Amino acid sequence: MARIFKGGEYLITEMDPADIFTPEDFTDEQRQIADTTQQFVTNDVIPHIDEIEQQNFDLVVELMGKAGELGLLMTDASEEEGGLELDKATSMLVAEKIAPAGSFSVAFAAHTGIGTLPLIYYGTAEQKERYLSRIITGEWMSAYCLTEPGSGSDALGAQATAVLSEDGKYYILNGTKQFITNGGFAQLFTVFAKIDKEHFTAFLVEKDFEGLEIGAEEKKLGIKGSSTTQVILNNCRIPVENLLGEIGKGHKIAFNVLNVGRFKLGAAVSGAAKMALQEGIKYANERKQFGRPISSFGAISEKIANMTADIFAAESLIYRLAGLLDNKLATIEKGIDNYYEEYQKGIEEYAPECGIAKVFCSEVLARTVDEVLQIHGGYGFVSEYPAERFYRDERINRIFEGTNEINRLLVPGMILRKAMKGELPLQSEAMKAFEQLMTPSFEELDENDPFAREKQLVKNLKNLFLILSGAAVQKYMDKLQDEQEILLAAADLCIQIFALESVLKRVEKAQSSQISAQKKELMAATLKICAFSACEAAGAAAQRGAFYAEEGDTLTMILSGIRRFAKYDATGLLQAKRALAATAIEQEKYIF
């Protein structure tokens, strides 16, 4: 049985490549599901992209019904509940393959994720019998109502209220929910409100319940083909049996479902980045300047290499996390009374990594669409070319499912809380890192190991995180949570380490696989590009954090450690980029 790693443990533990799940590990069944999803998008959705962008929601609902017929809406429901109960790796694969569907993918993701999971995880047998089959077949659309006009990141600051009626049969809800995806056509809403202005609680609300009103469609920068409205609760009467979960435990539903949402968003934006890259390369091959395709110029080919490496890192990170989750969830015995409670604990264990996935992958997409538009030049600014839509649609991904700033603050915060609870021995490891900082290193690299430099870099960056976080904890103690600038710097270290190590272990694992020698060489080239990029980003974050947290002799000591640990010999970097770009340009797509 696979070893079960703790959330955040990657910062202090050396993982064997065999323990990492990678895209090269997909089974034939998983690939078949991916192909089915991709064919649906290619044949049924993309031909209607323009109509969807014009907010033809009848068409969106019709296409969701087709997705339901294919089983794509029931990936997370159990077989007993009529679902497919696919593992997280397969569920992420579906999310990735649906992403090129543009605004339709937003409706799909909201429905299958935050719109469905609260009912699956917390619904009673009666609630599931009443609603779940309608949701997972596409008969009904679903939506999730957490955000309010005055509470975005501060979800628990919501002002919506719920009061029990005099006859005890209904909860009367009042308030306004903001930015509700699928609001214009959903039939079932998961709504959060405070009972007696105090107990944060979730409710299942049907569209036709008395007192529920749908606001006008928001006029948005991007994802124009998705429905985004207010949901207004005006003395809305909710039967008491539609209370979801427990009174006062709505925060558990809100945050646990968001963990999965963040993870799934990481997979979706990776799929969107692949689509954008493909369009960028295709255009670069067609566009000629000075008598030759612009893809033949180094300035353009370097962009293509960087985007390919970025997406490889995002993909590696996502499926590594999927494997971690699947291994953990497989230890939970099916059929036990508190199955979903234990299931949620399993997901919550990797909440830091879910936040990392959301931040890293959404920022990979941001860089990708920016470069794809740049490759298009002036035509990228014209709506007839998809680069313009990619650019507009991307921006929301760094905002919803928790802004990237909030997720950055959560990542080190959750990891340090684990340490304080004794779940991770960060303190003792930080002391070892400080000892290494004070001791001259005479360690020599294994010249027989082709990835020795990258392994050393990952090890050194982990030491940097331990040194920086150890110094910050020692100085600020429990007040560190208020030092957001330092936490943001620590988060960037956490993120770069997890991403780079995911790439390293995937590439290592691939060396003993059946893939071609050429692909192995291209993976090694990609690792070099990712290592150079991660070293630059992590070194800058560590330096920033050091100046924020320390001064005097301690600062001088930490800065010397940064100079020592945040260095990487990237000899052959240009050749690596040219090799990667040449293959991507030839194949006109993401090549892995």
From TrEMBL:
The keyword Amino-acid biosynthesis does not apply. Keywords: FAD, Flavoprotein, Oxidoreductase. Residues 248-411 form the Acyl-CoA dehydrogenase/oxidase C-terminal domain. Residues 27-139 form the Acyl-CoA dehydrogenase/oxidase N-terminal domain. It catalyses: a 2,3-saturated acyl-CoA + A = a 2,3-dehydroacyl-CoA + AH2. It comes from the Bacteria. The keyword Oxidoreductase applies. InterPro entries: Acyl-CoA-dh-like_C, Acyl-CoA_DH_CS, Acyl-CoA_Oxase/DH_mid-dom, Acyl-CoA_Oxase/DH_mid-dom_sf, AcylCo_DH-like_C, AcylCo_DH/oxidase_C, AcylCoA_DH/ox_N, AcylCoA_DH/ox_N_sf. Pfam families: Acyl-CoA-dh_C, Acyl-CoA_dh_1, Acyl-CoA_dh_M, Acyl-CoA_dh_N. Residues 460-564 form the Acyl-CoA dehydrogenase-like C-terminal domain. One of its GO terms (molecular function) is flavin adenine dinucleotide binding. Its cofactor is FAD. Residues 143-236 form the Acyl-CoA oxidase/dehydrogenase middle domain. Belongs to the acyl-CoA dehydrogenase family. This is Acyl-CoA dehydrogenase domain-containing protein.
